[in-house]
Amino acid sequence: MKTPPASLVPFAPVRPASIALAAVLASAFVLTLSACTVGPAYQRPTLHLPANWKEAPTAPGWVPAAPGDALDRGAWWETFGDPQLNALAQRVQISNQNIAAAVAAYTQAQAAVREQRSGLFPGASLGLGASRTGVRGQSGSARTVKSGSFSADWAPDLWGKLRESVASAKAQAQASEAELASARLSAIGALATNYFSLREADVELDTLRKTIAGYERSLTITSNRYAAGIAAQTDVLQAQTTLASARANLAALRQTRAAHEHAIAVLLGVTPADFHIDAGTDWKPVRPEVPLAVPSQLLQRRPDIAAAERAVAAANAQIGIARSAYFPSLNLSASLGNASAGSFANVLGSGAVWALGLSVSQLLFDAGATSARVDQSYAAREQTIAQYRQTVLMAFQSVEDQLSALDNLAQQEQQQRLASEAADKTEQRIFNSYQQGLSDYTAVVTAQATALSARRALLQVQVARQNAVVALIQSLGGGWQAQWMQAHQPHQSYNGFKNGTENRRL
């Protein structure tokens, strides 16, 4: 067995009890020092937040469709009262591959926290071995030598480097948890948007089929009038053109519906060939009431904001890790080992060689490398702070955009409904006038095109309002709550980090 260094082998006059006492005192001293940390105390970047939303909805039409606590439970899709959408949302959370990837990333982050935390504790190892030696040609010269060793090693966290590493890993794990919530919110939001667009396509297809049936009757009537010599051949040609255009629109709308169905299949983690949604023409748009919290609560309910804030916390911890290189490091070690021809039971017994070690190292010169790493960590934190503030600003923009959209879309739907009803009446009256010989067919064609366009526009603005509600719920965070952000409420004023002015603990 390798002989321990002379500096580690105890002298004869030294008693084991004295060594143990010295080790205890050294450990107590180390634990006292380990209460110090050289990193800056974390303070969440603060912003000036408005007291109220600028684009609050003023138009009527926010009709409650489900209990208002659905958002707080996170199951916001249930507020639309569609059983099929609810079933699809459950499947998405299980089978969506983006969510699965986010779950795996979160699991990795949690494991990284455990890995970093293990560095706070001593490490120990046990080794056993056996070898057989002898001289060739000499019988009875072979013998078996057994060896064993036990060693322990501990690098106390004097300046908080390991604790800062744990804090950084924990913040990154929390950011990963928020990113998982973002992935789930995005996937279900995409599902709802595609589902509502598919249902709108079903209703629009039904409307278009009914319109085509009316165009076919118009073509029959016009053809009969032409055969009777009452109408010109151009009337028949115009009727044929209108009918063919409507049929082309029908084919294009089928393609649109198929695209939405394929998108839903991918969100569910299946191939489009293995997924189908039956057509439904009885879909009615439902716009649930979305409770608006005060703007400051958005910081707790948006997972992307929570992830950005945790990135700042992780970057702040990296400053302490970088600064710890300025200070000495200490390592405690102990070992026990022996080699013997006897049994393994005697290897670590009487006669085993033991050693206790204490080493301290201090960086003297590195040409400014440590200082450069510290500067990098400060700059990295400033970068994450800027990204956090930008994320907050974009979140406020998103909410205001959707509030404005809902308000204006409600007014558009009201006016579009009036336009569609007027266009339907105009179409019928002009066609009656044509049958009486009081109008030419050009006026009929124009009225039919206007009526069809108005009907489709009404359906499209209805689904736009539906999707705007989905977008608003997403902008508000979908009812998700960041528990770690609730522990530190930000001030309603601007107060960013400034280099050289942070709270430092030692």
Structure description:
This protein is an alpha+beta fold and 506 residues long. The chain has a single domain, classed as Outer membrane efflux proteins (OEP) (Up-down Bundle). Helices cover 58% and strands 9% of the residues. The protein is built from twelve helices and four strands, in the order ααααββααααβαβααα. Strands 1-2-3-4 form a four-stranded antiparallel sheet. α5 (161-227) packs antiparallel against α8, α6 packs parallel to α11 (441-475) and α10 packs antiparallel against α11. The longest helix has 67 residues, at 161-227. The chain is elongated. The model is unreliable at 1-22, 58-68 and 489-506 (pLDDT under 50).
Topology:
Elements: H1 16-33, H2 70-73, H3 83-95, H4 97-118, E1 123-133, E2 143-154, H5 161-227, H6 233-267, H7 298-301, H8 303-323, E3 329-340, H9 344-347, E4 353-361, H10 369-435, H11 441-475, H12 483-486
Antiparallel strand pairs: 1-2, 2-3, 3-4
- Give start-end ranges of low-pLDDT stretches: 1-22, 58-68, 489-506
Largest sheet: 4 strands, antiparallel
What structural class results from the helix and strand content?
A: alpha+beta
Q: How much of the residues is beta strand, in percent?
A: 5-15%
The SSE string, one letter per element, is HHHHEEHHHHEHEHHH
What global shape is seen? elongated
Key terms for this structure?
4-stranded antiparallel sheet; alpha+beta; Outer membrane efflux proteins (OEP); 58% helix
